[in-house]
Design goal:
Length: 75
């Protein structure tokens, strides 16, 4: 089980809904990467995405002009 403090994860004005959308998007990217490399999943993609976010491997960028479009930016 993931040990996370939501308040620590909500950085730079990102709200919980934007973080959830970005985490889901990154999880889908992880699934695609693993399938392309023909790797076997040992952890759930959402758990991997959350761990990556906590480690600072990607950030959330929200474009308010595009009605809440969320992008995942690798660091």
């Amino acid at each position: 089980m993931l040990d996370m403090d939501l308040s620590k994860m909500l950085k730079n004005g990102v709200n919980r809904y934007e973080l959830a959308a970005a985490t889901a998007k990154r999880a889908r990217q992880i699934v695609d990467e693993k399938k392309e490399a023909k790797e076997i999943f040992t952890e759930k993609p959402v758990s991997l995405a959350i761990e990556e976010y906590k480690e600072g491997k990607w950030t959330v960028e929200v474009d308010k002009t595009l009605e809440g479009r969320v992008e995942v930016n690798p660091e």
